[in-house]
Structures are given as structure tokens and as C-alpha cells.
Specification:
Layout lengths: L16 H17 L12 H11 L7 H31 L4 H12 L2 H12 L3 H26 L3 H4 L7 H34 L8 H10 L3 H16 L1 H4 L5 H11 L8 H11 L3 H4 L8 H42 L10 H16 L2 H12 L3 H24 L11 H34 L8 H10 L3 H28 L10
Helix pairs in contact: 1-15, 2-10, 3-6, 3-8, 3-9, 3-12, 4-6, 4-21, 5-6, 6-8, 9-10, 15-18, 15-19, 15-20, 15-21, 16-18, 17-18, 18-19, 19-21, 20-21
């Protein structure tokens, strides 16, 4: 979807709805800072940071067999999970206009992959099925939404050329699908990149992906091993368009299926008990004839859970989300010129691309884990991790967007070029991506609680650790409904401001 920039872009003035909205969000974020714990709690983090820095610049590839094995499993989980998600999402996109389908997809994508992994861990155990489904289910909801939007925005003219009486199936496959197939392929490749990051993070629950070895290397202080693992992962992410060819996809899928790690037998009795007993609220499970009416007791149980865990979790999740969203926006405005031809020559843009590949390819969970060990369990490491990761993604998209802009011969240079030419032209697209990522940042914020930050994820993880699956499921449901509500607010803002991401940039 090409964008023709005007010769005289409208200046960003306070009266502009875009600027007013930005100021409001900046004000909210600053207000949230007064309620946030953003201190560095470790007494002296600098010696350990020096050791980490020395390890990162001296990668150790001597354990290459372990590195290749971790990488292999990471890719296998990602390929199978994303393939299953793409197929399911494509089918759901066709019927996405039905309200029940849209609501169902909104719910499954609102739950983070790690939450799904924790659920499936109780059902299937530490098996390959847990890893594949943890990626496939939320990604199916995401793919369904995006594919449905692509179909909705597609050029309708081919449909008008089809003869009357053509079947619905023929209309879809011969008139609608060819026009959007390229966008489907592009997005599927991007989703695989996301799947690789999700697959890596699954290592933190015990699956043998890169995340497992990253955690082990860091806790043991083997920073050179950590560096080697990260470098290999960056190479795989940055070269994905080279090795993921359409003609090789069937080979990759078959190979991934047979190369998955061996898993022990699944206990169907455990699965049955989980759904019929474990996730039922405690008062219902323990009810008897002499007890207080079950509904009243269940209400008191839920009330206690909401006040003691859900409410503080919601508060901290919202606070962290708003700070991270705004800081992501500020960093994006600094990052996108790094790869823009408006500001740098090819060598400088190459360095900028390398930097953005590193920050966007490093899973926010991994980065937050490292920073939390260095700086202590506060919101500050989480803000830095979320901001760098998401700013890397959006900065890359905005930088690519500037390649379409044409400068006047008399255009200013330097800071004036940025303020009066580039920024006004990209600002609408910038806000579109920021609000598009709002939902994602909320999901990521919630899950970072597993690392010790008192967001909703902290209480979910604690409930699983205490084998209180009923409490965990209620908290996950609260997280999901909040995410759905946030997505609705985001879409309303984007509609009001007439913000839209292009098909090519999704």
C-alpha cells in the first residue's frame, strides 16, 4: 500500500488531535511514575555489569553441540506452532465476521504464550505438545484477526469481474485470495520471527529451547556462553528471509515434526482431573451438605482473591504498561532515523539495522530477566526491556516507511530536517503502530510478573507454584478480559484519529 507524501506536510501543532492525544498519554505516563517502583535495588551492580559486558564481547562457541541442539529445538517449536496457527487462523479469518468467532479469537490471543504454556504444562507435562500448542493457540487468534483485516482491506474490483452465479468458494479462492496472498506470506514470515522469540522464551519453563540454556548460562555466570547463544539467535532471526523459502516449507515442517525432543507419555487422567477438578473454585470442590451455600462461599473466595491479588496485580500491570508504552514511543522517535535514507548513508544505515535487529530480536522476557538480575526486582528493568524491544520493532517499520518519502530540493538538513520534514510525515504512521502495539505491551507486561515484578503474572505464577490452579485460572481470565478491553480502546482511538497501518507493514 503505497504512501504518497505531500510536498508540504502539516506541522505538528498543539491544536492537532494527534498532538493532543500524545500529550495526554505523556501526562498519564508521567503520573504513573509517582506510583511505580523504578529504583535499582542492588547495592553495587557495576562489577557484575562489567563481567557481563566482557562476556558479551567474547562469545564462547566451544559448546557448539549444545548451541545447535538448543537452536534446533527452538526452530522446531516455532515452525510447527506457527504452521498450525497459520492454518487455523486462515480458516478462522474466513468466518471472522461472525461475532462468536471474533470474540473467541480475541480471548485466545489475549492470553500470553507463557500463560498457555503454564496451563498445558499441567495437562500434558513437559512435552513437545505443550510447547507447540503454547505458540499455536494464541498465534491462531492473532493470525485470524490480521488475515481478516487484510481480506477486509483488499481491492474489491476482482469480485466485480466474476460472472454471476459463481460459488462462494470459487469467489474466495480465485477472486479474493490472489490479491492478498502476498500480504499473507509477508505476515506469515513475520509471525515466524515472533514464533522464534516465543519458542526461545518457552525455555524458561523447562523446554529445551535457547531460553533454557540462556537462563542456565546466566545463573552460572557463564556470560561468554550467553553471548554465543544470543549471537546465533540473532543470526537466525536476521537471515530468516534467506533460509525460509516457500519451496522448503514442507521439508521444514516434516523435519521439525521428527526432530522434536522426546517426550514422556501423557497422562490423560491428569488432563481430566485438571479440567473437572483442579480449576474449579475451592468452595465448589469442597462443598458438602453442611456447608454454607456454595454460591455465597464462592463469592467470598473470589472477593478475597480479587482484593488481595487481582487488584494489586491490575494496578501494577496498568502502571507498567502506560510507562512502557510512552517510553517505547520516545525511543522509537530516536531509533527510526538510524535506518532512514533521509539521515544516514548506507554504512550508517547498516549499523543502524544491526542495532535494531539486536534489540527487536532479543525477547523482552530474556532481556528483562538479565536486567532484573543486575538491577534487582523493580519495574525499571521491565520498562527498559519492554521499551527497547518494542521500539526496535516500531523503529524498523517507521524507518522503512521513510524510504517512500521524497524530499524537496530546498529541504532543510540536520535537526530541522527531522523536526519539520520527517517527523510531521511519519507521525500519523508512528501513532498507528504505537497504539497497535499497546495490546501487545500489556500482554508482555503481565507475563513479566513471572520474573518477580508484582504484575498479574506474578500472582498467576505464584498460584501455579502453590498448586492453586483455580486461583491461577481466574487471574488469567482477568488478564484476558483486560487485554480485550484495552484492544477495544486502542481500536477506538485509532478509528477516531483515522490511524491505519498499511498491509505491508503489519
Amino acid at each position: 500500500m503505497a504512501y504518497m507524501a505531500p510536498h508540504n506536510p502539516a506541522p505538528l501543532v498543539p491544536e492537532s488531535p494527534l498532538v493532543r492525544t500524545s500529550i495526554w498519554f505523556l501526562f498519564i505516563a508521567i503520573s504513573c511514575l509517582f506510583f511505580a517502583d523504578i529504583e535499582i535495588t542492588t547495592k553495587d551492580p557495576w562489577p557484575e555489569m562489567k563481567r557481563l559486558g566482557a562476556g558479551l564481547i567474547t562469545p564462547d562457541f566451544t559448546k557448539w553441540e549444545q548451541i545447535l541442539e538448543a537452536l534446533l529445538y527452538t526452530i522446531c517449536f516455532a515452525i510447527l506452532g506457527v504452521t498450525l496457527a497459520n492454518i487455523t487462523g486462515f480458516l478462522l479469518a474466513i468466518v471472522f465476521h461472525y461475532r462468536i468467532v471474533g470474540i473467541g479469537c480475541a480471548f485466545i490471543r489475549a492470553v500470553h504464550e507463557l500463560f498457555w504454556a503454564l496451563i498445558f504444562l499441567q495437562i500434558f507435562g513437559l512435552t513437545a505438545v505443550t510447547g507447540v500448542l503454547a505458540i499455536a493457540i494464541p498465534y491462531a487468534g492473532i493470525c485470524a484477526k490480521v488475515y481478516a483485516e487484510i481480506l477486509e482491506e483488499a481491492d474489491p474490483s476482482p469480485l466485480q469481474a466474476v460472472p454471476n452465479g459463481t460459488s462462494i468458494i470459487s469467489l474466495f479462492f480465485f477472486a479474493r485470495l490472489p490479491g492478498v496472498w502476498a500480504h499473507f506470506k509477508t505476515y506469515s514470515l513475520y509471525r515466524l520471527e515472533c514464533g522464534l522469540r516465543s519458542s526461545a522464551v518457552l525455555g524458561f519453563i523447562g523446554l529445551p529451547t535457547i531460553g533454557f540454556y540462556l537462563e542456565t548460562a546466566y545463573k552460572e555466570g557463564h556470560y561468554s556462553d550467553l553471548s554465543a547463544l544470543l549471537l546465533v539467535f540473532y543470526v537466525v532471526i536476521s537471515t530468516i528471509r534467506k533460509w525460509m523459502r516457500s519451496e522448503l516449507i514442507p521439508v521444514y515442517i516434516i523435519a521439525a515434526f521428527f526432530l522434536l525432543p522426546e517426550s514422556g507419555p501423557m497422562s490423560w487422567s491428569n488432563a481430566w482431573r485438571f479440567f473437572t477438578n483442579d480449576i474449579m473454585p475451592l468452595p465448589i470442590r469442597t462443598a458438602d451438605a453442611t456447608s454454607v451455600p456454595v454460591l455465597i462461599e464462592t463469592w467470598y473466595w473470589f472477593q478475597n482473591l480479587f482484593v488481595s491479588e487481582a487488584l494489586p496485580g491490575i494496578f501494577n500491570t496498568v502502571i507498567l504498561t502506560m510507562i512502557a508504552l510512552t517510553s517505547t514511543g520516545l525511543l522509537t522517535l530516536l531509533f527510526f532515523p538510524l535506518i532512514s535514507p533521509m539521515f544516514f548513508h548506507p554504512f550508517g544505515r547498516t549499523m543502524g539495522h544491526i542495532f535494531l535487529v539486536v534489540v527487536r530480536s532479543t525477547p523482552e522476557y530474556v532481556l528483562a530477566f538479565i536486567l532484573l538480575q543486575l538491577w534487582g526486582p523493580s519495574m525499571f528493568p521491565a520498562v527498559v526491556a519492554l521499551s527497547l524491544h518494542n521500539a526496535g520493532i516500531i523503529g524498523h517499520l517507521i524507518g522503512r516507511f521513510t524510504e517512500q518519502l521524497q524530499l524537496r530540493p530546498d529541504s532543510p538538513r540536520g535537526v530541522n530536517l527531522y523536526l519539520f520534514e520527517a517527523l510531521p510525515r511519519v507521525y500519523r504512521q508512528f501513532l498507528a503502530f504505537i497504539f497497535y502495539r499497546w495490546e501487545v505491551i500489556f500482554r508482555e507486561t503481565a507475563i513479566l510478573g513471572i520474573l518477580g515484578i508484582h504484575t498479574l503474572g506474578f500472582y498467576v505464577d505464584s498460584a501455579f507454584a502453590d498448586i492453586r490452579f483455580d486461583r491461577a485460572m481466574v487471574l488469567i481470565l482477568i488478564t484476558a478480559f483486560m487485554n480485550i478491553g484495552l484492544d477495544m480502546i486502542s481500536r477506538r482511538i485509532r478509528t477516531t484519529l483515522r490511524l491505519q497501518t498499511s498491509l505491508d507493514a503489519r
